[in-house]
Specification:
three-stranded antiparallel sheet; about 210 residues; 8 helices; about 55% helix; 5 strands; mainly alpha; two-stranded antiparallel sheet; globular
């Protein structure tokens, strides 16, 4: 299947955040609410103070209407992010496993529900540190790019989106160089085959028959 221009150039941050808002988060409803019938399926009912799952976009809407509190995901805590930063900084370490939309989700939650997130300012700093160290590792991975594959597990959607334009261009160039080298090799083999010596073939053929 052909790759579209949009796929080559990547997505904008608002587009990525739109996708992230389909992910579920935990809320604590402040009012009783009946079950909601959504396209994706039913959500609720909501009975305070019981925790419930809701898509991020709905959680943000309820939060802005003062109808719920949003419970920060476990990965969006100071202690967890600090440990992740330490892991990422270890030499030869792999990318830590994080939600595919962790950057977008953190950006939305810190904007809409900062009062529900403990140590929010420290978390912002740690997210920036984490982003920078993972960007550095991504650049190192791109230096090892080859025509067959690029192995960098556990990248998030935003991180993949950042390297997509460079990667697709570099991968195309590598394929062209690889095809050119294969074509030149084929020409050399053809020229060698043309330089045959029938007299040697006859002599050796009779000797080893």
């Amino acid at each position: 299947m052909a790759i579209t221009t949009q796929q080559r150039e990547g997505f904008t941050m608002p587009e990525l955040e739109y996708l992230a808002q389909c992910e579920d988060v935990t809320i604590v409803p402040l009012y009783r609410m009946d079950r909601l019938e959504l396209v994706r399926g039913p959500v609720g009912p909501f009975r305070p103070p019981q925790k419930a799952q809701a898509p991020l976009w709905l959680a943000v809407a309820l939060k802005r209407a003062n109808r719920c509190r949003i419970v920060a995901p476990k990965w969006l805590s100071y202690s967890h992010l600090r440990e992740l930063c330490k892991q990422e900084e270890q030499p030869e370490s792999m990318f830590a496993r994080l939600p595919v939309h962790y950057l977008e989700t953190a950006h939305i939650l810190l904007g809409a529900a900062e009062d529900d997130i403990a140590d929010s300012q420290d978390i912002r700093r740690l997210l920036q540190d984490l982003r920078e160290v993972r960007q550095s590792k991504t650049r190192e991975g791109l230096r090892m790019l080859n025509p067959m594959q690029l192995q960098m597990d556990n990248l998030s959607a935003a991180e993949i989106n950042e390297i997509r334009p460079l990667f697709t261009h570099a991968f195309d160039m590598l394929h062209r160089l690889d095809s050119l080298a294969a074509s030149e090799e084929s020409q050399h083999q053809s020229q060698f085959a043309d330089q045959s010596y029938p007299e040697f073939d006859d002599a050796f053929g009779s000797s080893f028959a």
